[in-house]
User: What shape does this take?
Amino acid sequence: MNLRAATALRLFALSAFFAANPPFLSSASSTPTLSAPATLVHDDIEWPAFLARHDLVWEQLPRQWNEGAFAGNGNLGFMAYATLADNRFDFHLARADVTDHRKAPDRATSLGVPGASVMWDFPRLDIGRMALRPAGKILDGRLRMDLWNAELTGVIPTDLGELRVRALTLRDRMVHVFEVVSTERTADGKPAPWRWEFLPGNPSSPRALTRPEDAKKQNYPPNPAPRLERIDGLDVCVQDLLAGGDHATAWSEIPAPGANAARASRLYVSTANEIPASDRSGPRAVADVRAAASESLDALLSAHRAWWQTYHRRAFLAVPDARLESFYWIQMYKLACALRPDGPALDVLGPFYRTTPWPGIWWNLNIQLSYWPVYAGNRLELGENYTALLDARFDELLASFRGRKTFGDFVWALHNYWWQLRFAGDWSAVTTRWTPKAKATLAAFGQQLEPRADGRLGLAPMGSPEYKGFAPFPDTTYNLALLRWLLSALIEADAHAGRAPDPDAGHWRDLQAKLIDYPADTATGLRIAANQALEESHRHYSHLLPLYPLYQLDPDAPADRELVLKSVRHWHQLQAGKALAGYSFTGGASLYASLGLGDDALGMLNTFLSGRIGISQLHANTFYTESGGKNPVIETPLSAASATMDLLLQSWRDKIRVFPAVPSAWREATFRDLRAQGGFLISAAREAGATAWVAITSEAGEPCVVRIADWTGPVEARGARDFTVEPLAPGDYRVDLRRGETVLLFPRDRAPATAVVRALPAAADSANPYGVKRGGELKSAQVWPEPPPASLSPARD
Assistant: This one.
């Protein structure tokens, strides 16, 4: 038997063994008890089994970041992959708030500081890798990312035995836990000495590593080399910064008790960031490691799993497309890996660092799309760090955008803030938190207004992302749409403020009435600007924002609908779409869904999932890159999850829309507790090609108008009292739903005995489509050239 065949046989045997025997030293796998289900809608979901069919499964070891396995807690995270050339398995560590802070020595970041650049002054910085070095040569391996428990498990066979691995980033602590059970033995039968090694990251801005010629022009001085210290008996890698302060990573390896193996241990790792302070990060990381290591693993796992299992059950979605359903649930997992209420706002990397020329927040689409699944997905707490960023840095950020051709990007950023509050149904917060920001933004936007000969108002030349390199054009559709939205939202907020009208309300209405129409062509639809048609393939849908996500054009109005439809089709067909990227397809899906064209929307999503996405790549771990696989951006896969929800639920122009764009092939679909604007939680089931029932819970008591397009006859309501269901138009109903109430709606001639939410049947061979499959590895290294990580000299106490 050759070595490859022997390895394959060993892997098969190991996978069978793990199926029958939990491979690790502690289980703590009990499922927290749920509260009793609502009386109107019942769950019949075997959650562990359901999510298990969406686990990422690697049939062979990932060999680079673009294939890696990932975990995170909203700030701390890792990407795991093998570096076979050096015979090691890396956990590439990250902490999302570890950035430089040049030009702001007294702050943790120079974001918003005049003249500071995300590329040179406050870029993300590489922490480094915790490398597992087996004694023998790595032969192959298998991994599984358990979504339900947010734990990575796997086996790494070597020519001396095998290493079984478990890894997780604790949700409630800034600590990773890595557990290894080794059966490696030397030729004379003695335990073989595998080991852990910390390989520090390059402390320079990643922009300097990917664009060294730019670094020379900038006279960019790198940060000092990292140093290894001993603090309270633990090894600590301290990274000082030229701007002051430091971040530090500490670790402690302890034997794992009770292991029936040659050797077993647990490694606890923490990265602390006390910037701008000096000499505090190391002690903090040590304290976090010691606190975690002093707890029983069962206790740590119980708290960790309880959080994740509660999170997963916050909402449910099932569709008759196994690949899309898996992709959706992996994005929900990724979303919580990347976000936490008290963490940093999500940049293009999240807690999954790699060298890239884009080492931070980008405002012209990336950060906005990253948060879209938070809203309809009923994960609003994960969006709180975004509004917290704008609360804390609003004046500085506004000043940094004021008068620039990219000013519209900041207005778009305010739209996410608006959605966060509107999906919560919180008009009070709109009044106190959003409206003052919107008024200040409008005042700055006013500098761009220009009168036209007919008395109407247009816009001075501004950019339309990313057309012709953000070249400025007059009367850009992108910026006109954002200004229109800002005015309409201010007017709407004022109407719900519960006080006398704002003194400026008349001015807002006057501006709204005087704004010029969107520039458009009869044949091809919306233009980029008054003097610029869409005449070359263009990945960004900036000129289509009037429909989605702003809904300043109304898909229910025939003229608007025709305009947008021809615009979307022209955008994708122009020059055979040669410049399109992944988000061109996720955005296209949401645009088509807004028009009620579910088959077209699903076609966009399927094209995205197939990986036939022009200048970009979607990888087996569901991460997405551009520029030959070298530059990751996290928002595009997340926006695919949002687009999936758009097929099932939309809420705009004061109307909840249930199954508004369900594809014709989907005869079954169900969801529970997706969120609609106005503070509504919506559940619904589609059975045998028709909407069977819809349940609505009102958290805020706002007027409830719902569209269920395939209902044309009488509708009944069931709940704690008699409800009035008033037909408004075919498929449109007003329900007298009050705050805190739930109503179940159904056609009179098809009353359900009970409303039940269930997973849909799935073929066994459709499970676990993500993760690298046998022979499916990337055929080239998709990385920027940089010096290999260097070992640290041993420290002394």
